[in-house]
Specification:
Family: Belongs to the FAH family.
CATH architecture of the largest domain: Alpha-Beta Complex
Shape: globular
Keywords: Hydrolase, Metal-binding
Largest sheet: 12 strands, mixed
GO biological process, one term: small molecule metabolic process
Strand content: 25-35%
Order of helices and strands: EEEHHEEEHEEEEEEEHHEEEHEEE
Number of helices: 6
InterPro entries: FAH (IPR051121), Fumarylacetoacetase-like_C (IPR011234), Fumarylacetoacetase_C_sf (IPR036663)
Pfam families: FAA_hydrolase (PF01557)
CATH superfamily of the largest domain: Fumarylacetoacetase-like, C-terminal domain
Number of domains: 2
Number of strands: 19
Length: 283
């Protein structure tokens, strides 16, 4: 199933239409997309029956311009760096290095087709698979990790590379948390809908030029391993997000370096999920 935020309301995507969760559940579930994670199992069970039973004439148009972040207000956002071998190499890390863990502050999370203001001429791009947590996960084993996943979506981890590296120690979280620096969407896809949840192709284009290609099977730490590693330290809460890392091809590693410019479009696609596009303008 696919869950989205349409004009701020939780919906189930049914083809090119939208089933409003609050209205069609007769108020059993509220309209807030973030609140669904507190009773995720019940929501999924209800939605499975509702989407096949509802009259298509009773569904709303799925207007792409009204879509927001499918997980709009996560309490915690975990982000993983250098989690693909080729990206580790271009970033100057050993291929067997432990992935860097940091956060993107939740205020940076936005939805698809967002216009991001560029605070400088040093903003970089990264396509990522983003995982949403379904239920509290604490000290979860990798073998049991997927059962704690509500769904996955596409993310673009935007980074201001100067601020990120200011000082004697990197400031990853600050440099990656400007307003709009966490585009996600277009919707959240439950793992059962994926062709192979452990091997999805990622593609990223900048104004039509392919800049990144990879597969999630190339991760150094897989989704279950990341959940095991993170939950061993921090309880993962319903509706939390994990940005799982990016393949090679970022602008900061190019010669010469290439950064995002006003009026450019960053288009990211992941098999089984869809396409996420972000536009840019000068601040």
């Amino acid at each position: 199933m696919r869950f989205a935020a349409l004009a701020g309301r939780a919906v189930v995507v049914v083809g090119d239409r939208a089933l409003d969760v609050h209205r069609h559940s007769a108020g059993r579930f509220g309209p807030d997309p973030q609140a669904l994670f507190e009773e995720w199992d019940a929501v999924v069970e209800w939605a499975a029956g509702a989407r096949s039973a509802v009259d298509p004439a009773d569904l709303d148009p799925l207007d792409p311009e009204r879509l927001g972040a499918p997980v709009p207000r996560p309490r915690q956002v975990f982000a993983i760096g250098v989690n693909y071998t080729e990206h580790a190499a271009e970033a100057g890390y050993p291929s067997d290095s432990v992935p860097v863990t940091f956060t993107k502050f939740p205020s940076c999370i936005v939805g698809p087709d967002h216009v991001v203001e560029l605070p400088s001429e040093s903003v970089d791009w990264e396509i990522e698979l983003v995982v949403a947590i379904a239920r509290t996960a604490h000290r979860v084993s990798a073998a049991d990790a997927w059962s704690h996943v509500a769904g996955v979506t596409i993310g673009q981890d935007l980074s201001e590379r100067v601020i990120q590296m200011v000082g004697t120690k990197p400031q990853f979280s600050l440099g990656k948390s400007f307003p709009g620096f966490g585009p996600t969407g277009p919707w959240l896809v439950t793992p059962d809908e994926l062709p192979d949840r452990d091997d999805l192709e990622l593609r990223c284009e900048l104004d039509g030029e392919r800049v990144q290609t990879g597969r999630t099977s190339q991760m150094i730490y897989t989704v279950p391993q990341l959940i095991e590693r993170l939950s061993a330290v921090v309880p993962l809460l319903p509706g939390d997000l994990i940005f799982t890392g990016t393949p090679s091809g970022i602008g900061n590693a190019r010669t010469p370096k290439r950064f995002l410019q006003p009026e450019e479009r960053l288009t990211s696609a992941i098999d089984g999920i869809g396409v996420l596009e972000t536009r840019f303008r000068r601040a």
